[in-house]
Design the sequence.
């Protein structure tokens, strides 16, 4: 990652600074309700994160540059203390197309519980268990914008390895992941050039996306190994894959129907996975300004018990409460239930602005019924937690 930091410092040092600055500084506190499985772990974790954003636009808005670094210092987990460039890219707008070059974050997907089709960026797992936080991805992205839709071409010249908690961190596997010694199917390793293509379009009430990816899988497999200190560890293995994806969203009055489907092809595996469901919103409940949305999704993977995801035959139920007040208060409660056993994953996410510049975020996760050691979430059975974050935006 040092090469990207050097590039960022060079660009910033050779560009006028009198432009648009924004961003946030946040204090975070995590409280676990149970003692950890390992004596190296703790019940309380504190951290500080900083994410500034610098934006410059010229040529009548036809060209722009954005720089978004991110850093976190964690009280206990040295692997969670890290620095990343979320974005460092140049945009050129043409009459019917756009060209972006640099480091970016690209999101694909419509479902709430998981994003199967989202394969461009690597997951920053030390930031969030749900996979929503992503590392910046070096890329060249050309978008052709026509009446029949937008066609995006991606060239991805460098692979980013997934981040994992260290030995002192929680929400980790029983064996620590050895991020210093990954294995690759490609001889080019992290320098393998990946390609992706996506067509997206809106047809009336329908939003449609068709995508194809060819390159190194962002989802590693693991093998048990021994590190230099003689400890058992997990070595991540990054295989080559091809993935074809479909994402659909239909807006029908108070109904929002969602579907993501993928077919993924690896050297020794070919499987299909899907997530689909709906959200129905009750507007102005009890003659107030509040809206309440009911969410239900089904998560499926045709590999069944041999799937490398814990969500192969699961049902997600959720409740979204949007108060629509001046402080933008909202709450999302959800539970993912495994249909094969008694395991449940409960979650609560809530946020509220405080004044003009502050925001309070709350997140809680509870893991229930993780009694089977074959369950991929088994190592989290003691890791129920509540996370509070107070962020200042400038």
Sequence:
């Amino acid at each position: 990652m040092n090469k990207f930091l050097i590039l960022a410092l060079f660009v910033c040092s050779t560009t006028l600074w009198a432009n648009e600055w924004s961003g946030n500084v946040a204090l975070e506190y995590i409280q676990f309700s149970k003692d950890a499985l390992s004596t190296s772990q703790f019940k309380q974790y504190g951290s500080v994160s900083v994410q500034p954003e610098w934006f410059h636009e010229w040529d009548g808005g036809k060209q722009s540059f954005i720089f978004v670094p991110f850093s976190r210092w964690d009280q206990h987990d040295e692997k969670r203390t890290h620095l990343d460039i979320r974005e460092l890219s140049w945009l050129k707008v043409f009459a019917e197309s756009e060209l972006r070059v640099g480091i970016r974050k690209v999101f694909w997907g419509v479902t709430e519980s998981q994003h199967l089709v989202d394969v461009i960026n690597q997951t920053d797992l030390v930031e969030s268990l749900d996979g929503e936080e992503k590392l910046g991805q070096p890329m060249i992205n050309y978008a052709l914008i026509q009446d029949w839709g937008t066609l995006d071409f991606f060239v991805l010249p460098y692979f980013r390895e997934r981040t994992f908690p260290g030995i002192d961190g929680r929400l980790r596997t029983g064996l620590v992941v050895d991020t210093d010694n990954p294995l690759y199917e490609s001889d080019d390793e992290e320098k393998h050039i990946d390609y992706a293509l996506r067509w997206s379009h809106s047809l009336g009430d329908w939003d449609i996306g068709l995508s194809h990816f060819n390159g190194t899988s962002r989802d590693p497999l693991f093998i048990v190994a021994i590190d230099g200190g003689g400890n058992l560890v997990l070595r991540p293995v990054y295989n080559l894959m091809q993935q074809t994806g479909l994402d659909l969203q239909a807006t029908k009055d108070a109904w929002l129907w969602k579907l993501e489907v993928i077919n993924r092809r690896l050297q020794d595996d070919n499987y299909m996975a899907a997530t689909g469901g709906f959200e129905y919103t009750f507007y102005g409940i009890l003659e107030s300004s509040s809206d309440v949305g009911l969410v239900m999704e089904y998560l499926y993977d045709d590999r069944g018990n041999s799937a490398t995801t814990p969500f192969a035959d699961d049902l997600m139920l959720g409740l979204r409460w949007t108060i629509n007040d001046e402080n933008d208060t909202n709450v999302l409660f959800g539970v993912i239930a495994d249909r094969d056993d008694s395991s449940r994953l409960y979650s609560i996410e809530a946020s509220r602005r405080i004044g003009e510049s502050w925001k309070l975020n709350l997140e809680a996760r509870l893991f229930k019924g993780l009694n089977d050691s074959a369950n991929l979430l088994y190592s989290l059975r003691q890791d129920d937690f509540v996370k509070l974050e107070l962020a200042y935006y400038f």
